[in-house]
Amino acid sequence: MNNTAQLLQNNKKKILENWMQNQLADEALRDDLISNEELRRQSDELLNGLATATASGNVENTYAPEYETVTEILSDISITRARQGFTPRETGMYVLSLKQAINQVLEEKLSDQPEQLYKELSIINKLLDNLSMITFDTYIKGREEVILRQNDEINEISTPVIRVWEGILALPIIGTLDSARTQVVMENLLLEIVNTGSSIAILDISGVPAVDSLVAQHLIKTVSATRLMGAECIISGIRAEIAQTIVHLGIDLSNIKTKATLANALQLAFSMRGVEVKKTARYTGLNLNK
Amino acid sequence: MQIVREQDVVPFRNRVKEFATKIGMSLVNQTKLITAASELVRNMLKYANGGKILLEIISKNAQTGVRLTFIDEGPGITDIKQAMQDGFSTGKSLGLGLPGAKRLVNEFDLKSKPGEGTTVTVTHWKNGR
Amino acid sequence: MDRIPILKMGQFLLVTIQVDLYDRLALNLENDLINMVSKTGARGVLIDISAVSIVDSFMGRILGNIASMSRIMDAETVVVGMQPAVAITLVELGLTLQGVYTALDVEKGMELLHDKIGTIEHPEDEEEEAPHDDID
C-alpha cells in the first residue's frame, strides 16, 4: 500500500471531520437544499470510495476501473445537485473543500518531512482536481438532460390536434418543422385519426416561418402516412411567400390538396364529407335577461 | 443469433422487440427498428443463405439504444454506392431494402468485400428520430 | 403449412391478418387470394392489417401485387386498419403503396368498396378515393 492511500485510510475520520467543518463553514452551503446528515452520508461514502481507489496504487488516472465507484458516486451527487438547483460553484466547492481537508491533515502529519509533504500534496491536488472536473462534466450533463426533457415537452405541447368536426381534424403547426418535430406531429395526428375515426385531416402551416425543400419533404411524408392510414390530408395556410419559395425550389405539391386558408380547407373538408353549412335565421343580439 | 431459414425471422423480430421494449423505446421507433431489421434479415437469407446476428443494448452520451450487427459470409456487395440507391436490386425486388433500412435507423454502417461477405451494423436510439 | 383464412362476404373477400407474416406465408396469401378472386368472381378484396405490427418492403410489395392483380380481374383492393407506427415506417422506408386503396377500419373499407363498384362508370367524381400516387 502506498503512502497516499495509507494516509487517507488512517486519517479518514479526521479528514471527514475537517471536510464537514469546511463545508459547514462555507457561506455557500445550501442547508435549505440538503440536510447535514445527508451531506455527511454522501461525504463519508465518497471518502470511503476514494480510500479504496487509491489503495490500488493508482493515484493519477481517474478513468481507470478502480475509480469507477468514486466516479459513480460523484456523478450521482452532481446530477442530483444539478436537478436540485445547486449552482456549479456550489457543486465544485464540494470536492474542492475535500482537497482542503486532506491537505490540512497532510500538513499536520508530515510537518517534519517537507519533501514527503510536498509530494503527497501534489498527488492529492492532481487527483482531486481531476475529480472536480468530473463533477463539472456530470453537472453539465445533468443540466443537459433537463433541457432535453423540456425540449420533448415543448414538442409535445406544441402540436395540438383539434377535432373541428365529426371526422375532421385540424392541426395547426407553429414554428419550424424539423425531422424530430415532424415525427411528433405525425405520431400525434395518426393516433388521433385512429382514436376519433376521422377521415380528413387539415394541416395548417400558417405558423411555419419558412418552407424549404426539407420541410416540404416532411409535409409530404405526413400526407403520405395519413393516406396509408386511409384518411385524406389537406394543407392550408400557405402564404404568398411560401407559395413562391415552393415553386422556386421546384417542389411538387400537385398531389396534395392545398388551400390558402384554414376556412377554405374546412369548406373543402365539408364538401368531401357531404356536410353543408347554411346560414339560418339572422342573429338578433344576445338576450341578457335569460 | 443464427439465422438460416425463413422461419427464424419471426423469432428474431420478437427478440429485437424484446430488446427495444426493455430500454423503453417508443412504439414508432420500435416499429422502425424491427422493420429495418426485417429488411436486412431478408437480404441475408436471400443473398447469403443466412448468417449471424448480434443483438446488444448500448449507451452513449446519456442515450440508450439497440445495436444490431448482421454478419454473413455471402457473395458480398460489389458496388455499395449502387446498392444504397433507391430502386436498385440484383434480385427481383423493389430495391428499397438497404436504403430504406438506412432511413429507418439512426446509424447505419455497411462493410462488404466481394466473395467474403457483408457486415451491416445498425443502431437505433431510444428516443432517436 | 400455415395459411391465412379468406372469408367470402357477398361480392367481397375479407382477409384478416392476425399474425406477423413471414415471407412464405405472405406469398401463399397472395396466391390463395388471387385464386379465390378468379374462382368467386369477387368484386372487391378487403385486407385488414390492424393486427400487423410490421410491414416491410416485401409485405408492401405483396399488398401492391394483390391490388394490381385483382384490378386486372376487375376487383378493387382496400387495405384497412394500418397502425400509425406502421404508416410512419412505410413512409420513411419510401413505400407509399401506390395503387392500393386504404381505409381506417373494415366498416369504412366496405363503404369505400361499395362506392367504387357503384361509381365505376363515373370515375371523374371520385376525387376522395383517387388512387394514391407515389408522391415522393
From TrEMBL, chain A:
CDD domains given in the database record: STAS_RsbR_RsbS_like
Keywords: Phosphoprotein
InterPro entries, sorted: Bact_StressResp_Reg, RsbRD_N_dom, STAS_dom, STAS_dom_sf
Domain STAS span(s) in chain numbering: 158-269
Family annotation (Pfam families): RsbRD_N (PF14361), STAS (PF01740)
Keyword match Nucleus: no
Gene3D superfamilies referenced in this protein's UniProt entry, alphabetically: STAS domain (3.30.750.24)
PANTHER family: RSBT ANTAGONIST PROTEIN RSBS-RELATED, RSBT CO-ANTAGONIST PROTEIN RSBRC
Entry protein name: STAS domain-containing protein
Origin species: Pontibacter oryzae
UniProtKB/TrEMBL annotation, chain C:
SUPFAM superfamilies reported for this sequence: SpoIIaa-like
One Pfam family recorded for the sequence: STAS
Stretches assigned to the STAS domain: 2-113
InterPro entries: Bact_StressResp_Reg, STAS_dom, STAS_dom_sf
Protein name: STAS domain-containing protein
